Amino acid sequence: MSTGAGALGVLDDFGFEAAAIVLGPEGVRERRGDVERIRPWRSVTKTLTGVGAALALQEGRVDLDDPAGPPGATLRHLLAHASGYFYESENTLQAPGLRRHYSNHGIDEAARHVERAVGRDFGDWVQERIADPLGMTGLYWEGSASVGASGALTDLALFAAELLRPTLLDEAHFAELTRIQFPELVGIMPGFGKQEPNPFALGLEVRGEKSPHWTGAHNSPRTIGHFGMRGTAFWVDPDADLALVVGTSHDFCDAHREVMPRLADEVLAAHAG
């Protein structure tokens, strides 16, 4: 049931089942649809992995400049899609740091590096250091640190709220988590083509000046988040002091490319300021 200005009415334009939650710093501002349905998060999982790595960094278990992945690469390269790995393979396209090449394998390898450093299963690390403290009781972790999480939008909203008002990371490590890594790199944004540049932080996408994009025209360049190819997405805009989580019953498609930016701009118009 909607509790705000009705910006989430745009969800009807998807043409298939969709739900969403709008968050401000005080909590939920608006919600619509089945926010308790368990949904595959797919690549949204990468954001949990980024925070899990940042927590290990904060505890002194890892360093972002640790050698990891292909020769010449570091944990920083892996988390920022700059290691040179192929999408789903340990083969490489180029040397580290030359291009932003989106890689599930790179994120999985980053998690394996953290796992070795903390001496425990990475999924357990995420559960204990992120999910349990935030009350994400319905999070399911099924192996892959790049695409393996699933859960309800209510759990994703708790995670988005943490990125809006961080409590797990201190100021310096949260800044490192969300800072653009290798800011000059060009690359292909899955579903949206070549972006020059194509900014990413540590497991988080940064909006920057990308166009076209799945966030709104009025989202700030500092907006962070991710979308997953099974139709789940979220963004956190620190300038607007807002977050939006969205889940749909359809794989990412042209409807998402058209509706998601409009939805974001409606949420910003109704709730920002």
Automatic annotation (TrEMBL):
Gene3D superfamilies on file: DD-peptidase/beta-lactamase superfamily (3.40.710.10)
Record-annotated Beta-lactamase-related domain positions: 41-267
Xref: InterPro entries: Beta-lactam-related (IPR001466), Beta-lactam/transpept-like (IPR012338), Diverse_Enzym_Activities (IPR050789)
Alphabetized Pfam families for the sequence: Beta-lactamase
Name of protein: CubicO group peptidase (Beta-lactamase class C family)
Species of the source: Brachybacterium aquaticum
